[in-house]
């Protein structure tokens, strides 16, 4: 029953919709040729790590093959990846850096 004018609209907006932007992990990949000291320098220079932190993370990548070196907004993650890839290429090292959605 009813008047055929039931409310079929979209009305269930209860919570305010404040969706946080997705975050992206920046990954550093191991290879057989990039010098360890170069990787440590990259982590200090572009990821603000201390020498001790950078050395530890470099060793993790060396042993495990890959590690997350930071988590950022899409734009910052892209910038980090570009900076690392450009820097590695300019120094003729095959170091690879990528990003993936968290
Ligand atoms: N495996 C490299 C070597 O033995 C060192 C290295 C570490 C390279 C981390 C890349 O992301 C990397 N010289």
From TrEMBL:
Keyword Acyltransferase: no
Keyword list, A-Z: Hydrolase, Protease
Domain of life, source organism: Bacteria
An example Gene Ontology biological process: proteolysis
Any coiled-coil regions, as ranges: none
Residue stretches making up the Adaptor protein ClpS core domain: 19-98
Annotated region described as Disordered, given as residue ranges: 1-13
Pfam families per record: ClpS
One GO MF term: peptidase activity
Family: Belongs to the ClpS family.
Quaternary organization: Binds to the N-terminal domain of the chaperone ClpA.
NCBIfam families: PRK00033.1-2, PRK00033.1-5
Biological role stated in the UniProt entry: Involved in the modulation of the specificity of the ClpAP-mediated ATP-dependent protein degradation.
The protein's name: ATP-dependent Clp protease adapter protein ClpS
């Amino acid at each position: 029953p009813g008047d055929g004018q039931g409310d079929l609209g979209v009305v269930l907006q209860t919570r305010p919709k404040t969706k946080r932007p997705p975050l992206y992990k920046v990954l550093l990949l191991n290879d057989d040729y990039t010098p360890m000291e170069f990787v440590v320098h990259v982590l200090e220079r572009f990821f603000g790590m201390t020498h001790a932190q950078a050395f530890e993370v470099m060793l993790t990548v060396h042993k495990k093959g890959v590690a997350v070196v930071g988590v950022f907004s899409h734009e910052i993650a892209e910038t980090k990846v570009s900076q690392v890839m450009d820097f590695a290429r300019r120094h003729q090292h095959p170091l690879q850096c990528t990003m993936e959605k968290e």
